[in-house]
Amino acid sequence: MKQQWEERVVYQRPRALASVSTGYCPGCTHGLIHKLIAEAIDDLGIQETTIAVAPVGCALFLTDYLEVDGVMAAHGRAPAMATGIKRVEPDKVVFTYQGDGDLASIGMAEIVWAAARGENITVFFVNNAIYGMTGGQMAPTSLPGQITTSSPRGRDVETMGMPVRMAELLAGLPGAAYVVRRSVYDARTIKAARQAIRTAFRVQMEGVGFALVEFLSSCPTNWRLNPAQALEWIKEDMEPYYPLGDYKVSDIAKQLQ
Questions:
Q1: What tens digit of pLDDT does each residue of 87-129 get?
Q2: Residue 172's CB: how many other CB atoms inside 10 A?
Q3: Long-range contacts of 145-149 (CB under 8 A, 24+ apart)
Q4: Predicted local distance difference test score (pLDDT) of residue 84
Q5: Residue ranges per domain, the chain?
Q6: DSSP codes, 200-240
Q7: How far is residue 229's CA from residue 175's CA, in Å, rounded to a whole number?
Q8: Do 184 and 33 meet the contact criterion of CB atoms below 8 Å apart?
Q9: Is the domain 30-256 a CATH 3.40.50.970 member?
Q10: pTM of the model as a whole
Q11: CA R_g for the chain
Q12: 78/257 Cα distance (integer angstroms)
């Protein structure tokens, strides 16, 4: 008797992810994070009500890859713009997508005060410990001793200060409802990141308050590493200084996880 086979679709491109080729460098995990965000948008059924706010830097390319409404903010000002949009359109799901040079340097005041006020927005913070688009300069999150184009002898903490741990800093503000750090260097961390994105969106949708997911991400080009080495560098070098985990989860947010 001839066996009959049934074909079923087990995976397909998320509807919220544009059907285009990526322009990111080989091994860059921005694209993977985009996919996880798109999957969450699909699962939550919010594609038609979502507005993305992306600033200057590699983060800006988000608007090329997500099929949602989006606007560009001046460097560092995405939280301020997202605040305005959310207050005018409270029924929209508004999120920012920011790099470490943007959020933790020129935009430090904007992100701190958005969290302090408990603005009901979602922030996705991509920490690759370097300025990716503008030439590989030292970022606020560059590790001690890390060589960059503006710290060719390595980051000297005596003269340049210690790297800023943004998740820990923001978690200490009363207005923050959900602040976690995740990564995307293997299947286990990707799974945890996927769930955190969904929770961060749900926190906003339920009106709980400010939510931020920090991602430890790779930049092989500016780190001078191949893609496989870059993923190892996240795990072996970045994660010890930036431990993964939940830094603040309000009681209501816990119910949404």
A1: 999 999 999 999 999 999 999 999 999 999 999 999 999 999 9
A2: 12
A3: 148/222, 149/222
A4: 97
A5: 30-256
A6: HHHHHHTT--EEEEEEE---HHHHT--HHHHHHHIIIIIHH
A7: 38
A8: yes
A9: yes
A10: 0.94
A11: 18
A12: 26
